[in-house]
Description:
The protein is built from 5 helices and 7 strands; from the N terminus they run βαααβββαβαββ. It has helices at 13-27, 33-43, 46-54, 98-111, 127-135; strands spanning 4-7, 58-65, 68-78, 81-89, 117-123, 139-148, 151-161.
Amino acid sequence: xxxxxxxxxxxxxxxxxxxxxxxxxxxxxxxxxxxxxxxxxxxxxxxxxxxxxxxxxxxxxxxxxxxxxxxxxxxxxxxxxxxxxxxxxxxxxxxxxxxxxxxxxxxxxxxxxxxxxxxxxxxxxxxxxxxxxxxxxxxxxxxxxxxxxxxxxxxxxxxxxx
Length: 162
C-alpha cells in the first residue's frame, strides 16, 4: 500500500468526517451509535474543520492511498507544547504504519514552531490508542474529562519530551 501524507484542504472535509466516524464506531463500543454520529457531526462540522485549517500553529494532515483518504491527524502548538488533537485511521487500514507516518509528519510540521514536548489526549477506554502512543515513546502523564453524549468521559494525556 502506497501512502501519501499531505496537508488537508477544505475538499477533504467529508472524507475526514467519514474516517472519524468509521474509527469511532470501531473503537468506542461503550458509546451508542447515535452519540457517536452526533459527536462526529459536531466535532468535524465544516466550520470546525475550516477553523482548524486556517489557525496559525495548526497542522491538519491526511493520509491518502489510491486517491482515497484513509487517515488524518490534527495538531496544534501553543507556546513550547504541541498537542495531537485528533489521530484516526480507517479500521481496515490500521496496523499498516499509516498512523506512525501521520505522527512523524505531524511532529516534523509542529517542530517548526520550536516545541519541546508533544501531548496526545485520548479516551481512557481506547486500549489501541494507548498502545499506539506508548510504542511512539509517549508516557501517560495525566487525566482529564470530556463531555460526550451528555456524559463525562475520562481522557488520558500522553506526553513525549522532545
